[in-house]
From TrEMBL, chain A:
Gene encoding the protein: RAB24
Gene3D superfamilies assigned: P-loop containing nucleotide triphosphate hydrolases
UniProt-listed PROSITE patterns: RAB, RAS
Catalysed reaction, written as an equation: GTP + H2O = GDP + phosphate + H(+)
Record keywords: Autophagy, Cytoplasm, Cytoplasmic vesicle, Cytoskeleton, GTP-binding, Hydrolase, Lipoprotein, Magnesium, Membrane, Metal-binding, Nucleotide-binding, Phosphoprotein, Prenylation, Protein transport, Transport
One GO term of the biological process aspect: autophagy
Organism: Alligator mississippiensis (American alligator)
Protein name: Ras-related protein Rab-24
Keyword Lyase included in the entry's annotation: no
From TrEMBL, chain B:
Residue span, FUZ/MON1/HPS1 first Longin domain: 65-187
Source organism of the structure: Alligator mississippiensis
Highest taxon listed in the record's lineage: Eukaryota
Function: Plays an important role in membrane trafficking through the secretory apparatus.
A GO-annotated cellular component: Mon1-Ccz1 complex
Descriptive protein name: Vacuolar fusion protein MON1 homolog
Domain FUZ/MON1/HPS1 third Longin residues, every copy: 353-453
UniProt family annotation: Belongs to the MON1/SAND family.
Length: 204, 464
């Protein structure tokens, strides 16, 4: 389910109430909605174009529901994803345990998916340091171990949100270019006439 | 026509002893509440988006209708008011009652006591219980409980629900239902004020037949192989429904879909893609529903039901094609216009004593009803009017003694019910009119409905 109009599929995973929807809301609409908590039903899809250098990359973002009910279905949402933003609530230790569960899932089923750990609600720590429920260095060690990037964001203030998605898009461009150059193909696919990679040097 | 002057509050008082025990238990659940850390309580209430009530307070006991869902092991699954933990002993007693009678190869259906009806519905592996002070009949309350059961099935499927409890009898189902409390709460609130559920039918958004036909044709053209139903709705009113040939959508399934959409604002962001079971259609599997609003600021919501969970982008493209067709046919504007007047006034009918009516066409599963106007302005008055319709409905459909015609004279209004094999009509008149006057104007009302039917109903349903 990567779709024709999308360059990179990005999936958000994590325990319910960690703020996955708020993160997307901040990134896509530059806003933070205050009001009663609304859990996501199933998953929500939104496409967003982002510039990387002089290139436009379309991110197809899947905001999944955190509820256990959809766990069995979750594979349809992360299958073929190029990037997974695994979220946990910086004030809730149990949400980090849940994040580890998702990392294991991804490592088992989606080897080629890059993982971005995202600690949310950092503004709550600004207000009161003692509310931190997940130690920064523990997560940093874990991130190194699984070769993941680590971000601490606030959808309320916008802190590090754009940077997170920018990094996702840049890595996508960097790694796909790398893949194209190193990928060993058995032969030339004649049906791929439009591919600029094969024609750019001798066509004009 | 039958004259009815029954005192609503007059209810049988059998099994009073048991009901009192039950109340005693509700009071005792105070101790359980103390066991809970305030932390868990607060978190739960944040997740469900509502403040949990203190079950020891009088306010909790004064609610018109309590609804409880529990597993056969007596574990709480859902409570309409108050947290489930605080009510676990109450639910234990409820299960004990059910089991006690079952041991005797019997089944408990209801307890009537002190103005309360306690209604039990058993759908293994779940037990559903309502404690109601409303004037509804036992059957109607049981009917509402069945809706709650179907609501749970729509999230889990019957197959999965049974599988879970076969694996582990004392499973805590709230884990899987987390976040769905709002949907169930909304369904209960909706049933208390929307006659759709009582009628077992769906209300259409009134609009010119030409506009509706153009919308339906656009929807029909934007098809895909995996699509089973395409539905356009606005605030619980149906605009158009296109279905696969030979596949029919049961009103209960449609109500559950409407309720799902009206209970969550999260569909306003992006495009949702969610598994959903339509229990009346097939309770063993999931469909996948694509849910999105046509534009940010409108209430027009498009629901595309697909059999293939991998088909998101194909189905998403159907939406794009549908919107393109709407624009090409130039009906977008007319559609927006129809949204501006979602209800019509009773005065359009031109019968002076007429206050309100509900007309259901049985063959189409659709009903029409004007806006509820003065004197039914306050919420209490609106619910009282619906209560009167409920009463007439239950009399008309009483299994042992059904009635075709009812004329009811009350202190504040007179009502008439007329049930045939083709339609059901419930009419509310001012209290000053007479029975003869009501009967003579009913024909005029029927003529008006027939004249307007292509605006009020979907007369030419489309298939792919």
């Amino acid at each position: 389910m990567s779709g024709p109009r999308v360059d990179a599929k990005v999936v958000l995973l994590g325990k319910e109430y960690v703020g996955k929807t708020s993160l997307v809301e901040r990134y896509v609409h530059q806003r933070f909605l205050v009001g009663p908590y609304q859990n996501t039903i199933g998953a929500a899809f939104v496409a967003k174009v982002i510039a990387v250098g002089d290139r436009a990359v379309t991110l197809g973002i899947w905001d999944t529901a955190g509820s256990e009910r959809y766990e069995a279905m979750s594979r349809i949402y992360y299958r073929g994803a190029r990037a997974a933003i695994v979220c946990y609530d910086l004030t809730d230790g149990s949400s980090f345990e849940r994040a580890k569960f998702w990392v294991n899932e991804l490592q088992t089923f989606e080897e080629n998916c890059r993982i971005y750990l995202c600690g949310t609600k950092s503004d709550l720590l600004e207000e009161d340091r003692r509310r931190r429920g997940v130690d920064f260095h523990d997560v940093q060690d874990y991130a190194d171990e699984i070769k993941a990037e680590l971000f601490e964001t606030s959808s309320k203030t916008g802190q590090s949100v754009d940077e997170l998605f920018q990094k996702v898009a840049e890595d996508y461009v960097r790694f796909t270019a790398f893949q194209l150059m190193t990928e060993e193909k058995g032969g030339i696919d004649l049906s791929q006439k439009s591919s600029p990679y094969f024609y750019s040097c001798c066509h004009h | 026509m039958e004259q009815i002057s029954k005192d609503f509050s007059e209810l049988s008082t059998q099994l009073t002893g048991m009901a009192l025990d039950l109340e005693e238990e509700m009071r005792q659940s105070k101790e359980d509440k103390l066991d809970l850390s305030p932390q868990t309580c607060r978190r739960d209430s944040v997740l469900s988006g509502k403040e949990e009530e203190d079950v020891t307070m009088d306010a909790w006991r004064m609610h018109q209708k309590h609804v409880f869902v529990l597993s056969e092991a007596g574990k709480p699954v859902y409570s309409r008011y108050g947290s489930e933990e605080a009510l676990s002993s109450t639910m234990g007693v409820m299960m004990a009652l059910v089991s006690f009678l079952e041991a005797e190869k019997n089944a408990i259906r209801s307890i009537h006591a002190d103005g309360y009806k306690v209604v039990f519905v058993r759908r293994s592996p779940l037990v559903l219980v309502a404690v109601a002070r409303t004037q509804q009949s036992e059957q109607e309350i049981a009917h509402e409980l069945l809706y709650i059961y179907y609501q749970i099935l729509s999230l889990l499927t019957w197959t999965q629900l049974n599988h879970i409890f076969q694996q582990k009898q004392n499973y805590d189902l709230r884990r899987l239902l987390a976040g769905s409390e709002r949907i169930t709460d909304n369904l209960l609130d909706l049933m208390a004020r929307d006659p759709s559920f009582l009628m077992g039918a769906v209300r259409c958004l009134p609009m010119a037949a030409g506009v509706r036909d153009a919308v339906s044709a656009s929807l029909q053209q934007a098809r895909a192989k995996s699509l089973v139903f395409s539905i356009l709705l606005s605030r619980n009113q149906l605009v158009s429904l296109v279905r696969k040939k030979d596949q029919f959508l049961h009103p209960i399934d449609l109500h559950l879909l409407f309720n799902l959409i009206s209970s969550s604002s999260s569909f306003r962001e992006g495009e949702a893609w969610t598994p959903i079971c339509l229990p009346k259609f097939n309770s063993s599997g999931f469909f996948h529903a694509h849910i999105s609003y046509l534009e940010q600021e409108t209430d027009l919501c498009l629901l595309l039901v697909s059999t293939d969970r991998e088909d998101f982008f194909t189905v998403s493209d159907c939406k794009r094609r549908f919107q393109e067709r709407l624009r090409k046919r130039g009906v977008y504007h007319a559609l927006q216009e129809a949204l501006r007047t979602p209800f019509y006034s009773i005065s359009q009918v031109g019968i002076p004593d007429l206050r309100h009516f509900i007309y259901k066409s049985k063959s189409s599963g659709l009903f029409t009803s004007p806006e509820i106007e003065a004197p039914y302005v306050s919420e209490e008055e609106k619910e009282r009017l619906l209560g009167l319709y409920q009463y007439l409905h239950s009399r008309a459909h009483n299994s042992s003694h059904p009635l075709k015609n009812i004329y009811f004279t009350g202190p504040n209004e007179n009502l008439l019910a007329w049930v045939t094999s083709a339609f059901e009509l419930y009419v509310c008149y001012s209290p000053l009119g007479t029975k003869a006057g009501a009967i003579s104007t009913v024909n005029k009302l029927m003529k008006w409905i027939r004249k307007e039917e292509d605006r009020l109903f979907i007369l030419t349903p489309q298939t792919y």
